[in-house]
Amino acid sequence: MSLMASSMTTAVSSEAIARYEPVIGLEVHVQLATRTKIFCGCPTSFGAPPNTNVCPVCLGLPGALPVLSRQAVELAIEAALALNCRVNSRSIFARKNYFYPDLPKGYQISQYDQPLAEHGYVDIEVGGVQKRIGITRVHMEDDAGKSIHEGFKDSDRYTYVDLNRSGTPLIEIVSDPDIRSADEAHAYLTAIKQVLQYVEVSSCDMEKGHLRCDANVSVRLKGAEKFGTKAEVKNLNSFRFLKLAVDQEIERQVGILESGGRVLQETRLFNVETGETVGMRSKEHAHDYRYFPEPDLVPLRISETWLSDIRAKMPELPAARRARFIESFGLREYDAQVLTATRAMSDYFEKVAAASGDPRAAANWVMGDLAGLLKADGKEIEESPVRAANLGRLVALIAQGKISGKLAKEVFPKMFASGKTPEAIMAEENLTQISDEGALGKIIDEVIAANPKQLEQYRSGKTAVMNFFLGQVMKASRGQADPAAVTKLLKEKL
Ligand code: ADP
Ligand code: ZN
Ligand code: MG
Questions:
Q1: Three-state DSSP state, 220
Q2: Which of 133, 189, 230 to mutate to test the pocket of ligand 1 (most atoms within 8 A of CB)?
Q3: Residue 482: which domain range?
Q4: Is 160 in the pocket of ligand 1 (CB under 6 A)?
Q5: Are residues 374 and 397 in the same domain?
Q6: Widest CA span of the chain, in angstroms?
Q7: How far is the CA of 146 from the centre of ligand 2 (A)?
Q8: Per-residue pLDDT reduced to its tens digit, 306-354
């Protein structure tokens, strides 16, 4: 049947797919940003020579005892709170037994029936529609080592084991089966990544494997009550692959059902080359893992005081900050989204806004001119050569009429190139706005003298020619003249 299934995948019509509703739940693994491993003092640093960041505990040597890292627990709690979970006052570590060459203990230390936290959610938005995705649980566990495969010919093929990653602290975030499309899955993972980076629980660097995702997918006829049988696609290590794999899996399952087959409950792998998922093994069940409470660790107890201390140390979460930007700065929803995309972005904008006294103008400068120059240079906001206070001052100078908006647009790239203050650039370039009547009067006299025809037109009643003179004066002053002062003087002189 699996042969039939794979040959059917290309033949599935969009009409057939439209008759079904996908049901998706994600299991996301996140590496916590601790300095040391979860049960020993070995460093978690990336890229060390193979098998150098190891000790008897993370090598699983007999008699070595695990000691739980306080920092790992605190980061896991921060993650759980950021994901709106209830943190259990008591949770239990459990052994999940399986055999694999990169798992020297022969079991993973995880949590099973009493996890760290439960009943959370994240809000996503797809196509302008808001939706809440439930989070079933967040639990802590240790990571396995890495198998590195080398060579292609059977006679010359080796697998190496690197145990540097063994014992790295992870949290697993399990979603409710609330997701209904590949786009929603993408938005959900984006939201998780954003909020966890925001609270600095993890770098969530997918390239380094700090964020990994398994997608559980099933389909059912629209209107059906019961969920279909799910297949789990393992180890999706990019947002693009997540979307491709989910869509491909939906199509494959609809193909099977439409041709009268049955979807098997199994674990599948996404083949990056072909864009298809392939069966790996029939799904193991929880009882296959022989879970039992980890005898070497006491129950993890989290007191109300500890919890509230952690809560107090956490930054304002992006959703709350977004709401505040809209409420107290009068920003548009979209702008507030962009300006809270990362912690660094929110912090930068907030400083510009404070120094400028004009948050909405500040928002435009950050999202417009600054974002443009950063993008052209391939820089992140953290690397901005313009300090937030300096951009804020530039915006304030415009509001105070000390520089025109047009000139400010010339000053800003120079600030970006040099890192200097707006005042320094304006002084260097002689760009201070001219509102001194003597200096302006001289320029105006010259402009009038040079344009006798227009002067005559004006005097014969064509007052619209005023704009011509204003334009000429602005040009002659290289945009430095204060337009209000010029208009006033022109009226007198003409
Ligand atoms: P298992 O026991 O196979 O690990 P769980 O009930 O623990 O299954 O769920 C694992 C993940 O699969 C969760 O994210 C959950 O939301 C999701 N899930 C459960 N049932 C379905 C289904 N029928 N279709 C799609 N996803 C599902
Ligand atoms: Zn160790
Ligand atoms: Mg499960």
A1: strand
A2: 230
A3: 437-493
A4: no
A5: yes
A6: 105
A7: 15
A8: 999 999 999 999 999 999 999 999 999 999 999 999 999 999 999 999 9
Q: Which residues are 7's β-sheet partners? A: none
Q: Which of 340, 347, 343 is nearest to 326 (CA)?
A: 340
Kindly state whether residues 155 and 211 are assigned to the same domain: yes
* Nearby residues of 414 by Cβ (< 8 Å), 6 or more positions away: 420, 425, 429
* Residue 291 and residue 349 share a domain: no
User: Token digits for 309?
Assistant: 């201390």
Q: Which atom of ligand 1 is nearest to the CA of 174?
A: 14
Q: Helices 318-329 and 182-198 meet at what angle, rounded to 10?
A: 80
- Ligand 1 atom closest to Cα of residue 216: 26
Q: Report yes or no: 94 and 308 within 8 Å, Cβ to Cβ.
A: no
Structure tokens at 290: 């022989």
Nearest 5°: the CA angle 99, 103, 109 is 95
Could you read off the pLDDT of 428-466 as tens digits, one per residue?
877 677 777 777 888 888 888 888 888 888 888 888 888
Q: Which of 35, 61, 59 is nearest to 46 (CA)?
A: 35
